Amino acid sequence: AGFKTTHYIIIDRIGEPTYMSLAKVLELQSQGHEIGAHTRTHAKLSELPLEVIREEIFGSKQDLYDMGIARITTFVYPNGAFNEDVIALVKEASFSGARITNPGLNDQMTDPYQLLYLGINSEVTFETVTQKIDEAVLEKKWLIMVFHKIDESGFENVTTDLLQKTVNYVKEKQIPVVTTAQGLFIMKNIPN
Q1: What are the tens digits of pLDDT across the range 52-73?
Q2: What does the CA dihedral 186, 60, 147, 3 come to, rounded to 10 degrees?
Q3: What is the pTM of this model?
Q4: From residue 47, how far is each of 16, 50, 99 by CA, in Å?
């Protein structure tokens, strides 16, 4: 469909079975997809000492740079675990925004370091997805959809059929698809 997407990378899982290889991550970047940071180990940041949190956040960003990723501007909190200290370090690391695991739509009033989303998993129907897309369009808000694993077992599994139907629906309705960095830029520049 030509859509550009955002992929959040856990450093220690690059190349593991069911995770992307470094070559695939670099290929996605070369095709115009956004690559974002998701820590080194996927640890629950809110449960760690400050120096370990810093290492997870700053280290993952530096590791991605060292691997050849040109721009890393957004972050996702593993397991949605964050607190004020974690947010402060994400800001200090010069990320322009970060996503949490709370459902909802985003607009100018949304904290860019607490972006909401629609988590799509094995229990989410196509009807639910289209309802949320239509709601976002009607309310002129930004819906971040997260697809974790395509055609794998487990709760976070999404069938290729559901993914393809979603892509077809968005394309048919001519709904703009943006990366997280692009969405943040648009949100900041909408006049009040």
Answers
A1: 999 999 999 999 999 999 999 9
A2: 50
A3: 0.94
A4: 25, 9, 18
